[in-house]
Amino acid sequence: MTIIRQAVLTDLDAIVPLLDAYRQFYGQQSDSEGAHLFLRNRFEHSQSVLYLAELEGQPVGFAQLFPTFSSVLMRRVFVLNDLYVAPQARRSGIATGLLKAAENHARALGAARLSLITAIDNLSGQSLYEACGWVRDQAFYTYHRHITD
Question: pLDDT digits over 54-94, tens only?
């Protein structure tokens, strides 16, 4: 049985290995201690909302939302910064469930939209997003200015 629920601070140790695996998926070195500190700070300062997916009582995925605002729309916007499902639990509907939880959360708070950025070569992720009704932006480019390494 799959359960998707909003995570709380006591879930920190369950989410850390998932965040570490997610970071490695995107080419970063493993850093469980850094992942723990990063998540703890998000919880303690209420800077993000995390959803945790559990399959048969085991943590298998998460989604992390960061709140921001749109001056143009004059409303709240959420950035779906992280979505990860462990390899053994993929293609079981968990990612779709996490996306729905994120959408429900944003809708309940009156947000104008959810946004995300994914790697150009993440074709499976792109397929998932499009199947769930997400639309690739055709009007705006994304730019980054890296400040530190």
Answer: 999 999 999 999 999 999 999 999 999 999 999 999 999 99
DSSP string for 86-109: -GGGTTSSHHHHHHHHHHHHHHHT
* Radius of gyration, CA atoms only, the chain: 15
- Measured CA to CA, the distance from residue 92 to residue 56 in angstroms comes to 13
Sheet of strand 2-6: strand arrangement: 2-6, 49-55, 58-70, 75-85, 113-115
Global pTM? 0.93
User: Are the C-beta atoms of residues 43 and 66 closer than 8 Å to each other?
Assistant: no
Angle at the Cα of 45 from the Cα atoms of 40 and 144, rounded to 5 degrees: 85
Q: Residue for token digits 């997610």?
A: 22
Our separate counts of H helices and E strands in the chain read: 4, 5
Task: Strands of 7-149 (E only): list them.
Answer: 49-55, 58-70, 75-85, 113-115
